[in-house]
Write a structure and sequence with these properties.
The radius of gyration is 25 Å and the shape is elongated. A four-stranded antiparallel sheet has the order 2-3-5-6. Mean pLDDT is about 80; it is low at about 320-339. The protein folds into three domains: about 1-55 and about 65-195, Fumarate Reductase Cytochrome B subunit (Up-down Bundle), CATH 1.20.950; about 200-275, Alpha-Beta Plaits; about 280-335, no CATH class. It contains 16 helices and six strands. It has helices at about 1-10, 10-35, 40, 45-55, 70-85, 90-95, 110-130, 140-160, 170-190, 210-215, 240-245, 260-265, 290-300, 300-310, 315-320, 325-335, and strands at about 195-200, 220-225, 225-230, 250-260, 270-280, 285-290. The protein is α+β, with helices and mostly antiparallel strands.
């Protein structure tokens, strides 16, 4: 047991550190490759291209307009997770005592304590939110495990620093190793952690407003037979929240997910949503997602539906010779001008 614990705090720690740095470099490289391949990037000015490239590291969430409080909490949470491990005085001392002999000015201990407690409080908030609040249907076991893995290094570190559990023999002996191993698990997890766009099946009508407003072509759709398929590339996403901000149904969300499979899908896109398409009742051509048509039908009166020829394609509307002037206005009312 003693040899295993010694391995965890020495050789394994360095192996995890190398793995973490290598994984981050690979992800950064393929992010740049995918961004350069996207058409919107090539059409932008030099300044806008630079903003796009750094956007993944410091994303400005446009969703802040819809959820200002929640977005602010997320920003503060991620800032604390980044700052505390690097500038905590105990960690700086370990680097100074290592073979590298690196030193930088640490945070005051009281600041580090407050930020650690902020991380733990936010983890508790996220955990409770996923377990109890109305969006609990979005939460799976993996979501809860992710929160626990994130919070455990901070929890053990806080107890270790303050000697809170020293009166308990087990924790007095093993708390340090628990802190090191939990931090190693978290570093490995980060390599495979992606902030992905999710389109909720319960509310998404397939209007494609998210696709039209995506600044990096991370999201795209294509119609295949009677289905509209939405595809997404995690290596192009800058987590800007544009999809969340423009979605008229509040169906688009940004969701953290840990996936080894996604890590290796560096130049491809995943299908994240499919919706069934309605067909023109006159010629049989696909015209629009059924869910979107149904939503429009619930807004219009029977007279307006009859006048707009809702179940006809644009060609058949002209052939029938009916007035279709109501259609653009009606579609705008539920899809923000997207069709």
């Amino acid at each position: 047991m003693g040899e295993l614990l010694y391995f965890a705090e020495t050789t394994l720690l360095w192996m995890v550190a190398v793995f973490f740095l290598t994984g981050i470099v690979i992800r950064s490289l393929f992010f740049v490759v995918n961004i350069f391949r996207s058409r919107p990037f090539s059409r932008r000015s030099v300044l806008n291209r630079f903003v796009t490239l750094v956007g993944v590291f410091a994303p400005f969430h446009r969703a802040v307009l819809k959820k200002p409080g929640y977005t602010t909490i997320r920003y503060a949470f991620h800032a604390c997770i980044f700052i505390v491990p690097i500038w905590f005085s105990g960690h700086v001392s370990l680097w100074e005592e290592s073979r590298f002999e690196w030193y930088w000015t640490p945070l005051p201990d009281e600041w580090a304590d407050r930020m650690t407690l902020a991380v733990l409080a936010t983890c508790a908030f996220f955990f409770t939110r996923r377990m109890i609040l109305k969006n609990r249907h979005d939460a799976g076991i993996s979501d809860l495990i992710l929160i626990l893995i994130t919070g455990l290094p901070f929890l053990t570190g806080y107890f270790l620093t303050h000697g809170t559990l020293d009166s308990i023999p087990f924790f007095e002996t093993y708390l340090w190793y628990m802190h090191v191993i939990s931090a190693e698990i978290m570093l490995v997890m980060i390599v495979f952690l992606f902030c992905r766009t999710r389109l909720r099946k319960e509310t998404c009508v397939g209007c494609a407003a998210c696709v039209e407003n995506c600044p990096t072509e991370t999201l795209e759709f294509y119609d295949k037979g009677a289905l509209r398929l939405f595809r997404y590339s995690q290596y192009q996403c800058i987590s800007c929240g544009s999809c969340v901000n423009v979605c008229p149904e509040n169906a688009a969300t940004l969701h953290h997910a840990v996936s080894i499979r996604h890590f290796f899908r560096m130049l491809s896109k995943d299908v994240i949503r499919d919706v069934e398409l309605a067909t023109c009742e006159r010629c049989g051509v696909t015209i629009a997602p059924k869910l979107q048509t149904a939503k429009l039908g619930s807004i219009l009166t029977a007279k307006e539906i009859e006048m707009s020829l809702l179940t006809h394609c644009s060609r058949c509307k002209k052939l029938v010779g009916r007035n279709s002037a109501l259609v653009p206005t009606a579609w705008d009312s539920i899809s923000g001008g997207q069709s």
